[in-house]
Design brief:
single chain, 518 residues, alpha/beta, 17 strands, 17% strand, globular
């Protein structure tokens, strides 16, 4: 937060508003995780910022003291409870990572740790690097030039095991087959080039969190008419932090598959009630199971029969005599590939945010959660004002820049568990769990002010200012997905009809006084 105040290129009010938004988000998080000491300190900071906006002091010394006090509280919290710390992203680079990269890591829920690639030549540092790599959930290698790429030969060798067994990314300023081949040979998961494709980066980071979160073990469904098979395999799977479910009856297996949405299905080829191939067809007919990997397990040796099983709906064929370690490797590989594929399908190609269907699915899930936990939930629809004029005046590339600019603002200024999606064109949808309509309105209004005051530079060097309008609706006033979206859309229409560049929600939420444009 202190760095926000030191941005001398920005106006004083802009820096204070930006700091206010960050402090408000942190305060909500502190209350959610029940940290009263941190919440009290943040509340004092908010009050001080508001006073600063009304009666400016000579400098920011009081704010800086409060920020450093908050920083000490957070460091103490991390020392007391490592289990609540963010997962580490280890960055190996000869240069300082860009702000774009740091913002993307922060939004995806990673704490960056940077190691200068040039110090790896010091043997005393090797054990330290290995320890950090072992702790990290994500490893990133940055190569900005030929010299920095040469510096990666040692980490490729030193961290070979970690690179092959964890999510890893190489970001290179050059793109050549030789660099890609060296990266693949070293076991790096993904290769990106400069200029950085932020949408792909966001997608890879988000999908890596989906793959690595310990509270989301892989879901495996096994279907076999022999109950003893379930007992045997289940014992081994459960030791690997895998959510294993076994079914011996085809009808119950279908119900379980729809309910648990497995990451992979292990299916016996021959069963007394129904052929495994026919059951695979039934699975494939359900939209939730259309792409789930299905591995047939049998002692069948007939090549034509095995081929037919794969053609009819299976993805692979395994012999039941397969060694347990080999089966576990195959299951994990196939399941993680499926999860990554699903994450990519849910991502918008331009922004890396959730796409239209994915954000609607998330809103529906959050409604269910809010209903179970008796908590408020707010849904926001945002539309960039006069977007057609931007395209007509500056070109469609400029329009893309504006969309990415707003996307990055939403992506970095909201809480990690808030949902942000590109609803279509220049329209965005946000879901704010445990947030009432009034709180949501003030938060979105702060973002509106910040977006409207930030000049956007196009590729031809022109600067432009853009604004957005927003409509908000909340649960439990509106109880289902359709009514929530319709209400938010109606409020957005009112915002547009009343001059744009404003936030509108129900009159009850704000006593008939919605936030006004500055």
């Amino acid at each position: 937060m202190e760095s926000v105040l030191s941005q001398s290129s920005a106006h004083r009010k802009t820096r204070l508003v930006d700091l206010l938004v960050q402090a408000e988000n942190m305060l909500m998080d502190a209350r959610r995780i029940r940290q009263p000491q941190l919440a009290n300190a943040l509340d004092r900071l908010l009050h001080a910022i508001q006073q600063e906006l009304i009666s400016p002091a000579e400098d920011f010394s009081r704010l800086i003291r409060l920020i450093r006090h908050i920083d000490r509280i957070i460091k103490n919290m991390l020392l007391i409870s490592h289990k609540d710390a963010l997962p580490v992203a280890l960055i190996i680079s000869a240069q300082e990572p860009s702000d774009v990269l740091r913002d993307a890591l922060s939004r995806a829920g990673f704490a960056p740790r940077t190691i200068n690639a040039q110090v790896l030549n010091q043997a005393l540092e090797h054990d330290k690097i290995k320890a950090l790599a072992d702790e990290a959930e994500l490893i990133m290698l940055l190569a900005q030039d030929d010299e920095s790429f040469a510096n990666l030969e040692l980490p490729f060798t030193l961290l070979e095991n970690e690179l092959r067994h964890k999510t890893s990314l190489l970001i290179s300023s050059k793109d050549s087959f030789q660099i890609r081949a060296a990266s693949a040979k070293a076991g790096v998961s993904h290769f990106l080039t400069e200029p950085l494709d932020v949408s792909r980066l966001n997608m890879l980071l988000q999908s890596s969190r989906i793959l690595d979160e310990e509270n989301k073990p892989l879901r495996v469904l096994m279907v076999d008419d022999m109950v003893t098979a379930g007992v045997y395999w289940g014992k081994h799977f459960q030791k690997q932090n895998i959510n294993f479910r076994f079914e011996s009856k085809p009808e119950q297996a279908y119900r379980s598959a729809v309910e648990m949405q497995p990451d992979i299905i292990l299916l016996d080829l021959y069963m007394p009630d129904i052929d495994g191939i026919d059951l695979a067809k039934i699975f494939r007919e359900h939209p939730r199971l259309l792409d789930v990997p299905i591995l047939f397990m049998s002692t069948e040796e007939n090549d034509r029969r095995r081929m037919n099983a794969k053609i009819q709906g299976g993805d692979d064929f395994l012999n039941k005599t397969i060694a347990i370690d080999d089966l576990l490797k195959m299951v994990r590989y196939r399941a993680l590939r499926y999860r990554q594929s699903m994450a990519e399908k849910r991502s918008d190609s331009l922004t890396g945010l959730l796409n239209h269907n994915a954000i609607k699915d998330l809103v529906e899930a959050e409604i269910d959660r809010a209903n179970r936990q008796n908590q408020p939930l707010s849904v926001v629809l945002i539309d960039i004002d006069h977007f057609k004029n931007v395209n007509d005046t500056f070109g469609h590339q400029a329009g893309d820049i504006v969309i990415r600019k707003l996307s990055n603002l939403l992506n970095t200024r909201l809480r990690r568990y808030d949902g942000v999606g590109r609803y279509g064109g220049e329209e965005f949808m946000i879901t704010l769990p445990n947030t009432d309509e009034q709180t949501a309105a003030h938060l979105i209004n702060r973002l509106r002010v910040q977006f409207g005051q930030s000049a956007i530079r196009t590729e031809n060097g022109s600067n432009m200012l853009c604004t957005f309008s927003a409509g908000i609706a909340s649960f439990p006033r509106f109880l289902d997905l359709t009514s929530l979206i319709e209400a938010a859309d109606q409020h957005l229409y009112v915002a547009k009809a009343n001059g744009r560049n404003r936030v509108v929600c129900s009159e009850e939420a704000l006593g008939a006084s919605p936030p006004k444009p500055d």
